[in-house]
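Worked example

This section walks through a single chain of length 177. The input is the sequence exactly as stored; nothing has been trimmed or padded.
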Amino acid sequence: MAEQKDNIELRSEKVRNIIGQVPSRIIRRGITVLFIVVMILLIGSYFFRYPDTLKGAAHLHSDSSSLYFATINLPYHFIGKIKSGQKVNIELEGYPTNNFGLLKGEVSQVFPTPLETNEKSYFIVKATLINGMKSTQNKCIPFYPNLKGNAKITIGEHRLLEKLLSPIVSVFKSKER
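Given that input, the structure is written out below as tokens.
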């Protein structure tokens, strides 16, 4: 009796043909839509720019002519990437970016002498604040001596496609050598 149950056919041949056959029109449209989406993403990644940034601790200062500047401590192995004129965004502690915005600046001077603290070497970058203490949301932030924050220095921009393909390209270059 158990053998009879195993041999029972649950579906007729017509039903199996209908279930087993996938409509080719749906497959063609699905593959076409996927191809178009992937191509749009690849073309878009060529046009979208991806900024390379370095992060460091910032301290705000002012000189006698009420010119505001920040000193930024960066790890010493980044010294070759920093140049005068690069853009700096500073987020101050106690002044959330959502409410107050960022302070915009520009690298004005790089001090190559290493500063050693906690067994790490740092170098100091001086960045002049372009709009003084006026933030990106047009709010004037009061100045306090040695006000602290986090700085992001934009060292360059690359296309998003270059960023995505760089691991693959480096693998091929290493195989050629």
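What to look for: Strands lie at 49-62, 68-75, 87-92, 103-117, 120-129, 148-159.
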